[in-house]
Amino acid sequence: MKKINLIGSTGSIGIQTLDVIRSHPEKFKLEALSFGRNFEEGIQQIEEFKPALISVSSDDIAGKVKKEMTYTAPVLYGQEGLVEAAVYGDADLLVNAVMGRIGLEPTLKAIEAGKNIAIANKETLVTAGHIVTEMSRKHGVKLIPVDSEHSAIDQCLHGDSEKEVSKLILTASGGSFRDLSRKELENVTVKDALKHPNWNMGAKITIDSATMMNKGLEVIEAKWLFNMPYEKIDVLLHKESIIHSMVEYIDGSILAHLGTPDMRVPIQYALSEPDRLDLKGGDRLKLWEVGALHFEKMDYDRFRCLKMAFEAGRAGGTAPAVLNAANEVAVSLFLEGKISFLEIETFVEKALDSHTPISNPSLEEVLSADKAARSSVLTYLN
Ligand SMILES: NC(=O)C1=CN([C@@H]2O[C@H](COP(=O)(O)OP(=O)(O)OC[C@H]3O[C@@H](n4cnc5c(N)ncnc54)[C@H](OP(=O)(O)O)[C@@H]3O)[C@@H](O)[C@H]2O)C=CC1
Ligand SMILES: CC(=O)[C@@H](O)[C@H](O)COP(=O)(O)O
Ligand SMILES: [Mn+2]
């Protein structure tokens, strides 16, 4: 029986993680659970899974939970509570399904506590990949990808040596606006941006897919998860999201991972690897129904966020933390209707232009670059 701590339980990845746990009660047990503000979803999860520790974003939500729950367990809140939920008890695995850089501290603390990490929270690896990977090596814990592309690559690699790999090929759907020109992007709405063609995900990552920043963050995530130089990471436009990613070997062979766009597949694999379990429910891929798969070379002028992410990744040091922090703030401003879609990339570009990266930064230097980038983006509003 694998014991699991889950942070971000009420989000898209969190809910699907609980679905996997629910469908294999003989394999998985939920120990601790953390969510933010979604009380309705959270209280149902608490009553169903009866975790031994709960954490929420604030004191007022914690009060509501304590009043409503029908058994006794500690209910913590805030950043401290989030960390406590991540490191709780003798869980074997932390599933990090929170959105954004807030996932960094619980990840580091869980690594120190010797927990393997199933990581959906890509912002953590983008912000401080060098620290997270170094600490996981030091403490002998595994970083198991949940992101569909990285799970696909992990499954293709199957432990193969880096030396035999010539390229990791990340596929990109193109997001909600893939067929629009840059001119047409000037007036797109939040509502339209939130309509991803293939995946049903949280709001922030759906906007990241539309700007192609998601793929940029994934390039940096791949660099850290697979210890690959940027020269060996490529992105290919593939509008069907059927091939989740590929690995090209030095002899020219390419291995690809295919499946329906269903995040329960990589989530379940991250929980059970190296074993595979039945996927209960969900469609099987019927290639005769799909008919044809399409591929296009990436246009870096059209998708400038992807270009910026490659540049920030290559610059290294604190640059990826600034890219991520500026993007988190810009996306939330867009979702609040305060800036236009194209201003997301303009704001991120400005934050990167005004930042001089520090190489091999400490955690404090990373967090201070992150904080400064968040404040500077707000000043671009006026
Ligand atoms: N969705 C997907 O299919 C994929 C997502 N990812 C990555 O996984 C991560 C999660 O994405 P997704 O599930 O879409 O995001 P969602 O926005 O759907 O969910 C985010 C979760 O984090 C919780 N949360 C937010 N703030 C806090 C806080 N202060 N304390 C505790 N919990 C908090 C939210 O709680 P609440 O809602 O209760 O406030 C929610 O449970 C992201 O990094 C994303 O890039 C990667 C691949 C695919
Ligand atoms: C499901 C998942 O992993 C997302 O990151 C997805 O890949 C988004 O798709 P695109 O960024 O390719 O549009
Ligand atoms: Mn992905």
UniProtKB/TrEMBL annotation:
<dbReference type="InterPro" id="IPR003821">
    <property type="entry name" value="DXP_reductoisomerase"/>
</dbReference>
<feature type="binding site">
    <location>
        <position position="36"/>
    </location>
    <ligand>
        <name>NADPH</name>
    </ligand>
</feature>
<dbReference type="GO" id="GO:0016853">
    <property type="term" value="F:isomerase activity"/>
</dbReference>
<feature type="binding site">
    <location>
        <position position="38"/>
    </location>
    <ligand>
        <name>NADPH</name>
    </ligand>
</feature>
<feature type="binding site">
    <location>
        <position position="215"/>
    </location>
    <ligand>
        <name>1-deoxy-D-xylulose 5-phosphate</name>
    </ligand>
</feature>
<keyword id="KW-0413">Isomerase</keyword>
<dbReference type="Pfam" id="PF13288">
    <property type="entry name" value="DXPR_C"/>
</dbReference>
<dbReference type="GO" id="GO:0030604">
    <property type="term" value="F:1-deoxy-D-xylulose-5-phosphate reductoisomerase activity"/>
</dbReference>
<feature type="binding site">
    <location>
        <position position="12"/>
    </location>
    <ligand>
        <name>NADPH</name>
    </ligand>
</feature>
<dbReference type="InterPro" id="IPR013644">
    <property type="entry name" value="DXP_reductoisomerase_C"/>
</dbReference>
<feature type="binding site">
    <location>
        <position position="123"/>
    </location>
    <ligand>
        <name>NADPH</name>
    </ligand>
</feature>
<feature type="binding site">
    <location>
        <position position="11"/>
    </location>
    <ligand>
        <name>NADPH</name>
    </ligand>
</feature>
<keyword id="KW-0414">Isoprene biosynthesis</keyword>
<feature type="binding site">
    <location>
        <position position="147"/>
    </location>
    <ligand>
        <name>Mn(2+)</name>
    </ligand>
</feature>
<feature type="binding site">
    <location>
        <position position="218"/>
    </location>
    <ligand>
        <name>Mn(2+)</name>
    </ligand>
</feature>
<dbReference type="Pfam" id="PF02670">
    <property type="entry name" value="DXP_reductoisom"/>
</dbReference>
<feature type="binding site">
    <location>
        <position position="209"/>
    </location>
    <ligand>
        <name>1-deoxy-D-xylulose 5-phosphate</name>
    </ligand>
</feature>
<comment type="pathway">
    <text>Isoprenoid biosynthesis; isopentenyl diphosphate biosynthesis via DXP pathway; isopentenyl diphosphate from 1-deoxy-D-xylulose 5-phosphate: step 1/6.</text>
</comment>
<comment type="function">
    <text>Catalyzes the NADPH-dependent rearrangement and reduction of 1-deoxy-D-xylulose-5-phosphate (DXP) to 2-C-methyl-D-erythritol 4-phosphate (MEP).</text>
</comment>
<dbReference type="GO" id="GO:0051484">
    <property type="term" value="P:isopentenyl diphosphate biosynthetic process, methylerythritol 4-phosphate pathway involved in terpenoid biosynthetic process"/>
</dbReference>
<feature type="binding site">
    <location>
        <position position="173"/>
    </location>
    <ligand>
        <name>1-deoxy-D-xylulose 5-phosphate</name>
    </ligand>
</feature>
<feature type="domain" description="DXP reductoisomerase C-terminal">
    <location>
        <begin position="258"/>
        <end position="375"/>
    </location>
</feature>
<keyword id="KW-0560">Oxidoreductase</keyword>
<feature type="binding site">
    <location>
        <position position="122"/>
    </location>
    <ligand>
        <name>1-deoxy-D-xylulose 5-phosphate</name>
    </ligand>
</feature>
<feature type="binding site">
    <location>
        <position position="10"/>
    </location>
    <ligand>
        <name>NADPH</name>
    </ligand>
</feature>
<comment type="similarity">
    <text>Belongs to the DXR family.</text>
</comment>
<dbReference type="InterPro" id="IPR036169">
    <property type="entry name" value="DXPR_C_sf"/>
</dbReference>
<feature type="binding site">
    <location>
        <position position="202"/>
    </location>
    <ligand>
        <name>NADPH</name>
    </ligand>
</feature>
<feature type="binding site">
    <location>
        <position position="149"/>
    </location>
    <ligand>
        <name>1-deoxy-D-xylulose 5-phosphate</name>
    </ligand>
</feature>
<keyword id="KW-0460">Magnesium</keyword>
<feature type="binding site">
    <location>
        <position position="37"/>
    </location>
    <ligand>
        <name>NADPH</name>
    </ligand>
</feature>
<feature type="binding site">
    <location>
        <position position="196"/>
    </location>
    <ligand>
        <name>1-deoxy-D-xylulose 5-phosphate</name>
    </ligand>
</feature>
<keyword id="KW-0464">Manganese</keyword>
<feature type="binding site">
    <location>
        <position position="148"/>
    </location>
    <ligand>
        <name>1-deoxy-D-xylulose 5-phosphate</name>
    </ligand>
</feature>
<protein>
    <recommendedName>
        <fullName>1-deoxy-D-xylulose 5-phosphate reductoisomerase</fullName>
        <ecNumber>1.1.1.267</ecNumber>
    </recommendedName>
</protein>
<dbReference type="InterPro" id="IPR013512">
    <property type="entry name" value="DXP_reductoisomerase_N"/>
</dbReference>
<feature type="binding site">
    <location>
        <position position="149"/>
    </location>
    <ligand>
        <name>Mn(2+)</name>
    </ligand>
</feature>
<dbReference type="GO" id="GO:0030145">
    <property type="term" value="F:manganese ion binding"/>
</dbReference>
<feature type="binding site">
    <location>
        <position position="121"/>
    </location>
    <ligand>
        <name>NADPH</name>
    </ligand>
</feature>
<feature type="binding site">
    <location>
        <position position="13"/>
    </location>
    <ligand>
        <name>NADPH</name>
    </ligand>
</feature>
<keyword id="KW-0521">NADP</keyword>
<dbReference type="GO" id="GO:0070402">
    <property type="term" value="F:NADPH binding"/>
</dbReference>
